[in-house]
């Protein structure tokens, strides 16, 4: 049996709901739920929570993944995560509704695209073509960034579309210009 000890930072409060098998992780920034039953449906991992650490005991390799996911939750509740997206293209831009978490994209279609952000995700518009997503849960944040990117993925010839800030897009060369 392998034992993994995860230190709990002093700024985090953790409670275990044994009936629903959920860890509730709280800090100044907010609260994140962690459903243990999704990762250990058979109950093979033994979890004990002390004042300053969580102990995972298991025969399976799932405990290593569970340890890393818990560390990500701790990081998210303490500092949060940021993902920057960039919109490239003439006339492409994004606007935000001030009252609600709704984004309006102009992406070269005949209509504007409306995107409602889920609870727990905040957006900061740096310009009309650059936005920053902030969230406490890394998995939820990356899913939201991916679904926004899918609204208009970068096309392979000119690279127009929505991309991550540091993403490199490999562009195809034009066949007509390469034959000349």
TrEMBL record:
Biological processes annotated in GO: translation
Taxonomic superkingdom: Eukaryota
A GO molecular-function descriptor: structural constituent of ribosome
Limits of the Large ribosomal subunit protein uL6 alpha-beta domain: 88-163
InterPro entries: Ribosomal_uL6-like, Ribosomal_uL6-like_a/b-dom_sf, Ribosomal_uL6_a/b-dom, Ribosomal_uL6_bac-type, Ribosomal_uL6_CS
One Gene Ontology CC term in the entry: ribosome
Signal peptide: none
Assigned keywords, A-Z: Mitochondrion, Ribonucleoprotein, Ribosomal protein
Membrane-spanning intervals of the chain: none
PANTHER family linked to this entry: 60S/50S RIBOSOMAL PROTEIN L6/L9 (PTHR11655), LARGE RIBOSOMAL SUBUNIT PROTEIN UL6M (PTHR11655:SF14)
Similarity remark: Belongs to the universal ribosomal protein uL6 family.
Name under which the protein is recorded: Ribosomal protein L6
């Amino acid at each position: 049996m392998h034992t993994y000890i995860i230190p709990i930072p002093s700024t985090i409060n953790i409670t275990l709901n044994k009936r629903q098998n959920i860890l509730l992780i709280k800090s100044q920034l907010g609260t994140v739920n962690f459903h243990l039953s999704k990762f250990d449906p058979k109950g093979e991992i033994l979890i004990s929570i002390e004042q300053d650490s969580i102990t995972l005991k298991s025969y399976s390799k799932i405990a290593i993944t569970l340890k890393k996911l818990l560390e990500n939750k701790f990081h998210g509740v303490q500092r949060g995560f940021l993902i920057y997206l960039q919109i490239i293209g003439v006339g492409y831009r994004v606007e935000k509704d001030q009252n609600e978490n709704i984004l309006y994209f102009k992406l070269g279609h005949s209509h504007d695209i409306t995107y409602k952000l889920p609870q727990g995700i905040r957006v900061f518009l740096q310009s009309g073509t650059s936005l920053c997503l902030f969230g406490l849960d890394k998995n939820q944040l990356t899913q939201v960034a991916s679904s926004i990117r899918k609204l208009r993925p970068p096309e392979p010839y000119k690279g127009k579309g929505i991309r991550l800030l540091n993403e490199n897009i490999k562009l195809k060369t034009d066949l007509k210009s390469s034959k000349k």
